[in-house]
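User:
Can I borrow your eye for a moment on a structure tokenisation matter? Would you put together a sequence-and-structure record for a protein of your own picking? Please set it down just below, with no commentary around it:
AI:
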Amino acid sequence: MRHRPLRNRTRGNLPSELGRFVGRGVELAGLGRLLESSRLVTVTGVGGVGKSRLVLEAARAAAEGRQERYCDGVWLIELDSVRDPALLELTLAEALGLTDHTTRPPRAVLAGHLAERRLLLVLDGFEQLVEETAALVRELLRRSPGLRVLAAGRRPLDLDGEQALPLAPPAPEEALALLVQRLRAADPAFEVTGANRAVLVELCARLDGIPLALELAAARLRILSPEQVLARLEDRFALLTGGVRGAPPRHRALRTAIGWSHELCTPAERLLWARLSVFAGQFDLDAAEYVCAGPDLPVEGVLDLVAELLAQSLLVREETPAGVRYRMLETVRAYGAGWLESLGDAGRLRRRHRDWYVGLATWCELDWFSPRQAEVAALVEVELPNLRLALECCLAEPEDAHLGQYLAGTLWFYWAGCGRLTEGRHWLDRSLEPAAGPAETGYETSRLKALWVLGYVAALQGDSVPSMSALYECRDAAARTGDPVAAAYAVHRLGCLALVSDDMARAGELLGSALEGYRRAGELNSNVLMCQVELAMSLAFRGDLAGAARLCGEVREICEERGERWTKAYALYVLAYAALDAGAPAEARRLLAECVAINHAFHDLVGLVLALELLALVTVSEGDPAEAAVLQGAAEPMWEGVGLRLFGSGYFNAPRLMCRERAGELLGFDRYAECEEQGRGLTREALVVRALRGPAERGSGVPSPRPGGRGGLRGPRTARRAAADQP
């Protein structure tokens, strides 16, 4: 498919500037010139020297000054918490706002997306994946002539055509200005005077002007005078200089700065610093208390110690959609990790970290079937770096493979419900790579769960062969070990495969059998309700609209009682399908509006695109074929991210085909194609806003006759024609 420029789309994701950028005028101008002449520029230097801040400032200047060159935006990709090379492309795709649920390699998805776009990628913190990042950047630059890359790292990528800009510490006057700015942020009344100026200048010189070191010094200057800080620094320098033999002076200076801050911490603060280094990205207080507390660090004291580390700028407090979180700067975290290794406690802390996040995932799975569903989605999104780290820890040792299977399977609601099919498939495949583990029941249960979740995810990707293989293995093993719940899940997802393969009779048989298995086992959750919705779909496609509406009415009631929204959206889809078939487009629109809003909130691309296709047909029946064609055009490329178009199903494809035929007849081929093209240029956010507008807001004309007549949505003839229409 030809990729088009991002018209009317978000022009990047650069964060808002929180503070005034101090100095670096010469470097900023030089960086701007390099970006004019080279497609790959890397700012290099020691950790803490200000690389990230400089490239962000240069990126902002590029976004404002060369809008024609970067007409598709300037995009920041932060890689410092990514450890698994397999997640590199996924992280880039996520930052660019791409959603792709297919089995295509993420690198191919990225290359295809960028092929004809003109944008600037800003890569920050790639050191731990330098070889993989270099290979990816090389391929993207070769295949995307309009792409430029600005990177920040401790070393260059060593690619042909790369321009490196080594970043030295700022000049003395700039270092002083930065220190004073930080001091005034804490105390607006602070002034440089004749009495303190010489000491401040000396302090900057002794710290080599490194911005991170100045940040740490500014934190100490909140409680000590400049003379006291300088005196303490003098006392510690002999002990803390040096570092690795042969390391550049700036490396030793940074180690001096961080080591000096470490020396000024109390023993308890140092211990917490070391233990907090096991976290990836952000963490909350509850996690810190569980993972880090022990006989030598009482849990009731962790809060005060966190406050002290915050006061010393060794932790950063951040507001997130899931509440307050804390984060260590990477250089500070790495220093703490070195101390943790030297204490011989790293392995135990990693296991504590793993156990906390396995428990978190377990509670989130339970809370998914509750009014907290949206909060759970936000929480897992924020905690994803730590969940990835926990998965890595589980899969690092063969004897813990069952924990990896359990964790990857337990996150099914996130993989399937929040648009993370590709990543979920990655972890599920990895967790199931080892041969069957020990024969204990708990271990087998974890494997069965990973198998049915893999079957589910692969089915949603349109990858039916691996899906069927995993589900049959799960079903047979469940029968052999006497696990009726796993058997019900396997039969349920086999029914889903039959549903999307247009075998409605078998789908009804399997889904009905799964529901009976769930009832016998006392199982009730979002999956069970989804099984009932899918059974309703099979009835609707066979013409039993009354039976389908009855089943989905029950699901809707239970969802509203429990506060469940994700499954409710699919029930609303079926109810809207029945309403449109019964000649009630206004009711169908009302139901679909709620369905679209829910699926968009959860980033569920499968549910969203199904609802949009049906909403386009509703829009034709309201007398607005042009708007229907716009919706069709916007929905069409979304299927490329889901997988096989409409799962290859004639039944699921029927609304799209009928909308195309009806709107095409009313508009004519040229006008229909023009409206479809307009839809392809919409962002997902703009599309959802547009889709939720009713006829009164659009000012559409007199409603046209209901398309297809009674049974027209799901008659066999329409289904066969739709199947034949598949590209």
